[in-house]
């Protein structure tokens, strides 16, 4: 339908594997990037990002990934963590790939993208540990099975606005 789900309909299950998970939290607030418009063939994924505030903090030991500082640039090594259609019950890690180019908020990677990984985090190893670089939005050059190169939206492109928006929402 193109409708954005209400935050309370969203579930976060960190550690999901074969029906088991480490915690269960629900959405309590939702902010969508300015300019977001869902269409099946949107063409421009640069605004394809949302931020969900959870109904409670994650349990100890399940801290969220901090946003990357400084922003991601071409040539950096990254990992994509996903639950694609080919492995929906187990986390897949596409490690050792790179950001090929950055065009504004768009990160073109050489990481493999399979159907179903939209929303997957793109992570790099920072000085203090893993950092969130971006979120997978689409793929480029997909073959007949839908596999292509992951295209991501850089976290720094929308995070400040989304944090402000979700802070004002009260949800």
Name the average pLDDT.
88
Structural class: mainly beta
Shape, per Cα inertia axes: globular
Helix content: under 10%
Beta content comes to 35-45%
The biggest sheet amounts to: 6 strands, antiparallel, barrel
In N-to-C order, the SSE pattern is EEEEEEEEEH
Question: How would you portray this structure in words?
Answer:
This protein is mostly beta strands and 171 residues long. The protein has one helix and nine strands. The protein has one helix at 155-169, and strands at 11-12, 25-32, 50-54, 77-82, 92-103, 106-113, 121-126, 129-140, 148-154. It has a six-stranded antiparallel barrel. It has a three-stranded antiparallel β-sheet with strand order 1-2-3. The protein starts with 10 loop residues before the first strand and ends with a helix. The model has no long low-confidence stretch (mean pLDDT 88).
């Amino acid at each position: 339908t193109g409708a954005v789900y209400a935050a309370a309909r969203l579930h976060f299950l960190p550690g999901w594997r074969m029906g088991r998970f480490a915690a269960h939290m629900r959405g309590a607030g939702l902010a969508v990037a300015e300019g977001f418009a869902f269409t099946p063939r949107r063409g421009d994924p640069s605004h394809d990002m949302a931020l969900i505030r959870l109904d409670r903090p994650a349990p100890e030991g399940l801290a969220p990934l901090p946003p990357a500082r400084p922003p991601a640039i071409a040539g950096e090594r990254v990992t994509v963590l996903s639950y694609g259609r080919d492995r929906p019950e187990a986390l897949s890690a596409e490690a050792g790939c790179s950001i090929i180019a950055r065009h504004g908020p768009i990160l073109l990677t050489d990481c493999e993208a399979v159907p179903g990984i939209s929303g997957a985090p793109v992570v790099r190893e920072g000085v203090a540990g893993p950092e969130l670089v971006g979120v997978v939005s689409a793929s480029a050059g997909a073959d007949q099975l839908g596999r292509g190169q992951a295209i991501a939206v850089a976290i720094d492109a929308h995070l400040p606005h989304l944090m402000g928006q979700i802070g004002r929402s009260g949800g």
